[in-house]
Amino acid sequence: MTKMKRLRSQLSAAIMFAVLMGITTGCWDMVEPNERSIWVGTGLDSAAGRKIDLSAQIAVPRALGEGGGQQEPYMVKSTVGRNLEDCFQKLQAKLSRRIFLGHRNAVFVGQEMAEKSMKRLMDEFGRNPRSNIRAKLFLVKGATAKSFLAESGGIEYFSTEKAIRQTRFNGINDKMTTMIFFKEVLQRDGMRPLMQVVAAGTEKNPQSEAEESESSHREIALFNNSAAAVGYLQEEEAIAALWAAGYLKDQMVTETVNGQEVTIDFHHMKRTLKSKIAGENVEVKLALRAQGIVDENDTDLNLFSYSDMKQVEQAFNQRIEQQMNIMIKKVQQKYKTDIFGFGEDIHRRYPKQWNQMKGNWDERFPKVKVTVISSITIRHIGERGPK
Questions:
Q1: What is the DSSP string of 102-117?
Q2: Extents of the domains making up the chain
Q3: 321: closest CA among 251, 243, 260, 268?
Q4: For 74-106, how does the pLDDT look when each residue is reduced to its tens digit (9 = 90+)?
Q5: 173-221 pLDDT, tens per residue?
Q6: Phi/psi at 63 (nearest 5 deg)?
Q7: Pseudo-torsion of CA 161, 162, 165, 169, nearest 10°?
Q8: Helix, strand or coil, per DSSP, at residue 17
Q9: Any idea where the Spore germination protein N-terminal domain is (predicted)?
Q10: Hey, which residues does 281 pair with through a beta bridge?
Q11: 338 near 361, Cβ under 8 Å?
Q12: What is the phi/psi pair of residue 242, to 5°?
């Protein structure tokens, strides 16, 4: 009897294995790869009558395979619709292969649409199961998203890939550049989203380095709780804002010490917030920390000397605090949008008081007193000490 049970058990296992092998063999959705459109990037612009002008940067497999041919490795198709899904259906009619949004690596939003509001786009970003929710999100300043997709990618095949790589190599936390993260921040009561900015129309000659677009991290767009872009920060102010908001993980910084320049490669960049409520007043302590490696020292300071090294650290800390204070004051007084998440920290520490504040947080935010404390530490001084 025991032998019969064992045989039945083995037979059942064999049948189950055969069934599973049959199920898992082949493509899951029965659509062969050569029947899909390789959709690399999406452009979203405003159109008349509250409609959306959607553009798709689609790879051309034949051109990619030839390598170095005259045909561009991509094409840009566009259509106008009432919402994103309407646009997708109309665009599908223009293509010989099935649309597959899982390949989409980035979404570019034109300046006009971003400054009106992006709220109507948020639903599709998270609801559509075919969409790549980890796609990067960029604002195209000074032009349409369609025109950016049509540009050359320089040493990359696509302008989409160029923008993504610039962000990746500029020290920004990768997950914080995605469209799903933008949507998550927008749903919070005490924090407002920001977005990377790219410029279109500046790369007239791909062989000329002087005419290439600015690095994407050098400018950011600030959004309010209506998902509308309300302002922009450039260069040092943009880097300071990204650090204060918790977006940066590493960055190379050059400062003047004793009349000469020192460059430090910072990593493990962190920020912590500590809020305090005193009556009607709100105070926030912003603590910044980072570890650094000295990449270049043009001064006469001997970094093997403890006192000289501390002098460099002090100079950097003072400059960082000064830049942060100027940038935060500008965001508070000019743009009035809490990209730093001060409100979120109050929410965690004082949930009862926050319930009374969140309704008019945008009015209270400019009045918050902020204290900045920078504590950078040099962990490695490079290969040389004295000059």
A1: GG--EEEEEHHHHHH-
A2: 33-62+71-203+214-234, 250-386
A3: 243
A4: 778 888 888 888 887 887 877 777 766 666 788
A5: 878 888 889 989 999 999 999 999 988 765 544 444 444 444 445 799 9
A6: -70, -40
A7: 180
A8: helix
A9: 29-198
A10: 278
A11: yes
A12: -65, -40
